[in-house]
Amino acid sequence: TLGVVLKSASEDEIVAAVRAAGQGHEVLTTEWAAAIDGDPNLDAVDLSPQLQRVLTLYASGGTSVSVGQELGVAPDTVNEYLKRIRQKYADAGRPTRTKLDLFKRAVEDGWLPMPQRSINNDDDR
Fold first, then answer.
1. What is the pLDDT of residue 20?
2. What does the pLDDT profile of the chain (125 residues) look like in tens digits?
3. Rounded CA gap, 91 and 104, in Å?
4. Which of 91, 82, 80, 101 has the alpha carbon at shortest distance from 44?
5. Is-above-0.85 flag for pTM?
6. According to the model, what pLDDT value does residue 81 have?
């Protein structure tokens, strides 16, 4: 899923969202956040403070090296933490195969804020 658009959205908003999704861009809206928040089947994953920090730094664009430097641990340790995080999400039925998946899970679980992005039709011109 690349996003959610309400049926009541204007035609321009829907077309812009479809174009963005067609180009592989996520359509992150408050409706998407509300859909996630209202999903009773979304099992929360309990992460220690250290795993939360690794997830937020890595999912925000960090590398194993940069996250390790930030936390004062080796990149191999960061990779082990990432394995633990991925396993916890897999156990909850919410796999994280890619870095984007990790980002989505971090947003879903409130470890990262919902990105603020509006659809702007001027981007297509």
1. 79
2. 556 666 666 788 778 878 877 787 766 665 555 555 555 455 578 899 999 999 999 998 999 999 999 999 999 999 999 999 999 999 888 889 999 899 988 888 888 887 665 555 444 44
3. 17
4. 91
5. no
6. 97
Question: In angstroms, what CA-CA distances link 120 with 10, 12, 21?
Answer: 13, 9, 13
Q: Decide: helix, strand or coil at residue 3.
A: strand
Q: Could you count the other beta carbons within 10 Å of the beta carbon of residue 95?
A: 12
Contact 78, 67 (CB under 8 A): yes
| Measured distance CA(105)–CA(65) in Å, rounded | 22
Beta bridge partners of 3: 27
- What are the percentages of helix, strand and coil residues in the chain, rounded to 5? 55, 0, 40
Residue 20 identity (one-letter amino acid): A
- Determine the 3-state secondary structure of 102 from DSSP: helix
DSSP string, 41-81: T-------HHHHHHHHHHHTT--HHHHHHHHTS-HHHHHHH
